[in-house]
Amino acid sequence: MKLTKRNTLLVLLPLSCIIAAIYAIINDCLLYLFCPEFFTKFKFIEYGVRQNIPGLETDTGFPLTEIAQVAIMASWWMGLIIGTTLTVLCLPIICPKTRLITIAKAMGITTLVTAVISLTGLVFGKLFLTGKNMLNFGYLPNGLQKPDDFMMAFSLHNFSYIGAITGMFVASVYIIKKKKKLMAF
């Protein structure tokens, strides 16, 4: 398939959603290992997948299917927003190969920035949302065994979205600079 501008959009927009979903699945699997209660007492309920897991309250096993369901539902739309933004910014690049390489690098930048800011969220959660600071937080599910871990997971999860948007802006700057450099030749 020739990589025309139209084909670039048709290929990269679904691919962006898939990349976002894969990132979210990996992120959520690691997050589940850190704090299963974030899912069993919050995310599975929020996304309506809890009824699919008998005996969930005991936290036995690793519910990969349910984690993946939550991750995909929570992330595909971010992939669409990020993919659309980065792809549209790259469309003016004439050479299809350069356009594809630029988009791939921009997606890598976005992913890296997202991961770094997500981890920052874990630290933020530990410093500002645990212990006595937790009293300032409005909603906590009943019966949490590890409320500090829950709050750290909650913070990491929210910082992931902040990271994705920040990563998109950093990648956009990269694309704009790349286009200016290409136009100089």
From TrEMBL:
Keyword Membrane: yes
Highest taxon above the source species: Bacteria
Transmembrane regions listed in the UniProt entry: 74-94, 106-130, 150-176
Keyword Transmembrane helix: yes
Keywords of this entry: Membrane, Transmembrane, Transmembrane helix
UniProt protein name: Uncharacterized protein
Lineage per the UniProt record: Bacteria, Pseudomonadati, Bacteroidota, Flavobacteriia, Flavobacteriales
